[in-house]
User: Which sequence fits this backbone?
């Protein structure tokens, strides 16, 4: 029975780590960049503050504008994806892939996702 529990944990571990990292990046970006953008909008007069409430485009926000975290997260993922498709990124990715090779469940899964099942880059932009 414990072998099945351990196997299930190993299968779910990459998903759990991915969700945790995305959540960490989102909340870090949302807090840091959201507050910075809010202060910038307040300085330029595009937003106004009434106590702890920030008004932007007629919508009240508490402390900062939260949408910027999502936008920044998407931009970071696009940047990492673009780097992974370059020759230097492939070299770096090969080194990281070698580290993941020690995890039985993760062997080859990320390489197949980016470059196809045979390790050949798919045609496209």
Assistant:
């Amino acid at each position: 029975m414990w072998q099945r529990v351990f196997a299930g944990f190993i299968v779910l571990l990459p998903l759990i780590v991915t969700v945790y990292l995305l959540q960490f990046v989102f909340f870090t970006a949302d807090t840091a960049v959201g507050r910075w953008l809010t202060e910038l909008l307040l300085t330029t007069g595009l937003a106004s503050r009434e106590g702890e409430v920030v008004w932007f485009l007629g919508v009240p926000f508490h402390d900062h504008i939260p949408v910027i975290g999502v936008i920044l997260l998407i931009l970071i993922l696009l940047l990492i994806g673009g780097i992974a498709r370059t020759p230097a990124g492939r070299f770096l990715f090969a080194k990281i892939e070698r580290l993941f090779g020690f995890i039985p469940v993760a062997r080859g899964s990320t390489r197949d996702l980016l470059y196809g099942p045979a390790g050949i880059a798919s045609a496209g932009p």
Summary: The helical segments are 2-44, 67-84, 87-100, 109-115. The CA atoms of residues 23 and 60 lie 24 Å apart.
